[in-house]
Amino acid sequence: MTLAKIVYASMTGNTEEIADIVAETLENLGIEVEINECTQVDADEFVDADLCIVATYTYGDGDLPDEIMDFYDDLLELDLTGKIFGVCGSGDTFYDDFCKSVDDFEAAFTKIGAIKGAESVKVDLAAEAEDIENLEAFAKELVEKIN
Predict the structure, then answer these.
(1) Dihedral through CA 63, CA 36, CA 119, CA 107, nearest 10?
(2) Domain 3-146 maps to which CATH number in 3.30.310.80, 3.10.20.310, 3.40.50.360, 3.30.70.380?
(3) How far apart are CA 99 and CA 79, in angstroms?
(4) What's the pLDDT tens digit per position in 37-68?
(5) Among the four residues 48, 75, 93, 119, which has the most C-beta atoms within 10 Å?
(6) DSSP of 100-139
(7) pLDDT tens digit string along 61-93?
(8) What is the greatest pairwise CA distance in the chain?
């Protein structure tokens, strides 16, 4: 069975909800899903996954959250050549660098050889109806890419 590994960082619960929406959609499409908060998992667990997904928020002026920094650094040490990845997350359009952490993870995955399976999804604060549709489409596109 195809395994999707979702790792998330969430301060307010918004990004955890985003990760849960993606996970539920993947499960409904017959994908086995493992979802973990970023401090509870090692980056090298992506090696065993068919789909590698990160959901993160952006802190302040475009910064990666402190709690995901070690995961990010460890990710850059991996070789995920040929693995399918997707990134989604939340931010606040009040800041100039809206959802920059999503872009940072996308660049990291690309650097270590992974293949982008879907356009990243950026959510302003909490997921609303249109965001949920975008996240579900994101998950479906990842599944199509793996098949």
Answers:
(1) 50
(2) 3.40.50.360
(3) 25
(4) 999 999 999 999 999 999 999 998 899 999 99
(5) 75
(6) HHHHHHHHHHHHTT-EE-S--EEEESS--HHHHHHHHHHH
(7) 899 999 999 999 999 999 999 999 999 999 999
(8) 42
